[in-house]
Amino acid sequence: MKILLANRNRQALWGVVVLFSLFAAGCGGGPATQPQEPGLSGTVEIDGSSTVFPIAEAIAEEFQKKEPGVRVTVGVSGTGGGFKRFGVGETDISNASRPISTSEMEQAAKNGVEYIELPIAFDGLSILVHPSNDFVTSLTVAELKKIWEPESKVRHWSDIRSGWPAREIHLYGPGHDSGTFDYFTEAIVGKAKSSRSDFTASEDDNVLVQGISGDADALGYFGYAYYAENQGKMKLIAVDAGQGPVLPSAQTISDGTYKPLSRPLLIYVSVKAAARPEVKTFIDFALEQAGALSTEVGFFPLTDSIYQLARQRFEKKVAGTVFGGKDMQSGQDLAQLLQPATN
To answer: In total, how many domains does the chain have?
Structure first.
């Protein structure tokens, strides 16, 4: 009997030891485990164009799924507002719906900010009216200039074409800090930022959508992506640059036949920021995913060869701009502009 009790006591004691060991292991006191490889961490700060925002936001969301330790913020202060911050070193990446201007280049140089210019998608500016408008289907470039130039005398629809109603026209467009404003005025009026001032302006394209969709006598413009998201609320107008009216579409924007309002969308990366692992990894991811994600949010992907040229520019840290402080001109080939810098 004593032997049996002794065996039972030893078994009970062994059970206690096992339970204690399991408990200790659960509390971190057990055998050492192999430490997991730490992921990327840090922040990537982006600001700039409201037009580029949907692409940048989509890229940021997908990137953070892959790298949850990196915090990516995307602001919307307009292309000009973004360059103001970027040029003094406040942000890592600046979204732009037009190339960097001469004055912005000078500001960056003054503050020792070097940058790598990277195209990520194509966009076309859209001319829009209220869906109830049954008399405007197209406008010539000359008519658009007549409407928007600083000394414009256009106050009524009948001032544009005879036979149109004598009702007052209400204009909507991007604000002065917007790259879309700069591009439109350069392409249509002939000089960037040269425009009449008596129109409803906003850096937020959603505000313009609401204005145009709620005003029967509205005429406005903004990026094609915002039209694509709100097609039922507005009517798209064709533009005649001398070869007949052309509506913006995936085909006409990508092949350049929608003139003169097709353009590349760009990001500018600080060379200093690009040395940080989280920024470099983000840009590599952006150039890999921009084509697919731009399509999802209503823009148009670049060709594979152009994305490859952009990747080469980033890998080689080719600083500066290929546009020389000006907007891309009608007929210019983006691949040809990028090619010399990568040789």
So the answer is: 2
Assign 340 a pLDDT band (cuts: 50, 70, 90): low
Distance between CA 313 and CA 86 in Å, rounded?
19
Cβ-contact 123, 265 below 8 angstroms: yes
Distance CA 120, CA 300 (A): 9
Do 147 and 237 fall into the same domain? yes
| More confident position, 331 or 36 | 331
pLDDT in tens, 132-156: 999 999 999 999 999 999 999 999 9
Tens-digit pLDDT profile for residues 208-237:
999 999 999 999 999 888 898 898 899 999
Helix (H) or strand (E) holding 218: strand 218-223
Structural domain containing residue 243 = 124-254
- Taking the alpha carbons at both ends of the chain, their separation in whole angstroms is 93
> Are 152 and 146 contacting, i.e. CB atoms less than 8 angstroms apart?
yes
Instruction: Please tell me whether residues 213 and 329 are part of one structural domain.
Output: no
Residue 175's nearest CA partner among 238, 221, 229, 125 is 221
**What b/e sequence results for 21-52 when a residue is b if at least 16 CB atoms lie within 10 Å of its CB, and e otherwise?**
eeeeeeeeeeeeeeeeeeebebebbbbbbbbb
DSSP label at residue 320:
B
Last residue of a domain, one of 194, 221, 254: 254
E strand or H helix at 232: none
CA 310 to chain centroid: 16
Tokens of 222: 């903004």
Residues 6+ apart with CB under 8 A from 185: 148, 191, 192, 193, 194, 195
Cα–Cα separations (whole angstroms), residue 312 to 96, 122, 307, 317, 338: 20, 19, 9, 8, 10
In this predicted model, which residue has the larger pLDDT, 15 or 281? 281
64 Cα distance to chain centroid: 17
Assess whether pLDDT exceeds 90 at residue 254: no
